[in-house]
Task: inverse folding
């Protein structure tokens, strides 16, 4: 049953798109960063990905409501990270055509115009387990031809580094407030998969600093079911905080 008679907000389409990133993942550890990815991961666990593992970020495995389900000491966490058994959804201050991500600085590394978070765990994440990205405000400042500094490793950079870098490297999808993207092209260039309802192709092209593949074949992000919408609004985010994360 779909929600044709109910107005679905842009933030709720973003939640659905993030949840879909973990579809068919099996028993892997979901590591969402940000409110909408977190609601998406919990929604996936409650519906179509029941084997998904969630953590409190410290030492416990938790259910979709945060109730303890098991113990996850750090050494076991690291084993999952280095063996491709975790799927992270990170943010990106910049991301380019081949999925290189920057969260460290804007401008030259030795004299940046703006200092950001720093590289942190992005290289290890991207080389050891699948990493998707969430961008709440799609613009040419974020979707750039070439990132100022590589933190998360993209497909071209991983290929240049060789087999040790490509063994577990995979970027399943990028979700923004405008649409959903992947790298399922012959050269692993970013492809438009779907537009969120209400978004035009011209809007996405104008907010992206490079040419996107797949624009003519792109669909629309799917509608949430009635039950998914109920879970989002009444159980997973009853205070509506998701609407604050998507500016449009």
Result:
């Amino acid at each position: 049953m779909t929600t044709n008679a109910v107005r679905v907000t842009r933030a709720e389409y973003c939640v659905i798109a993030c949840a879909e990133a973990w579809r068919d993942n099996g028993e892997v550890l979901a590591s969402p960063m940000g409110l909408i990815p977190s609601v998406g991961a919990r929604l996936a666990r409650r519906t179509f990905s029941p084997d998904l593992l969630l953590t409190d970020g410290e030492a416990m495995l938790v259910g979709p409501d945060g109730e303890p389900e098991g113990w996850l000491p750090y050494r076991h966490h690291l084993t999952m990270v280095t063996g491709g058994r975790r799927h992270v959804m990170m943010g990106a201050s910049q991301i380019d055509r081949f999925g290189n991500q920057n969260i460290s600085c804007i401008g030259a590394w030795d004299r940046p115009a703006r200092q950001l978070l720093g590289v942190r765990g992005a290289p290890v994440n991207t080389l050891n387990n699948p990493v998707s990205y969430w961008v709440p405000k799609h613009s040419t400042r974020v979707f750039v031809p070439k990132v100022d500094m590589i933190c998360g490793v993209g497909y071209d950079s991983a290929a240049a580094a060789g087999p040790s870098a490509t063994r577990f490297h995979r970027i399943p999808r990028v979700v923004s407030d405008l649409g959903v993207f992947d790298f399922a092209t012959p050269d692993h260039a970013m492809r438009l998969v779907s537009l969120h309802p209400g978004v035009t192709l011209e809007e996405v092209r104008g907010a992206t600093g490079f040419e996107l593949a797949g624009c003519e074949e792109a669909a629309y992000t799917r509608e949430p079911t009635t039950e998914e919408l109920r879970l989002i609004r009444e159980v997973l985010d009853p205070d509506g905080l998701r609407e604050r994360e998507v500016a449009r």
User: Anything to note?
Assistant: The domain at 10-238 is CATH 3.40.1080.10 (Glutaconate Coenzyme A-transferase). The CA atoms of residues 120 and 151 lie 8 Å apart. The chain has one domain: 10-238.
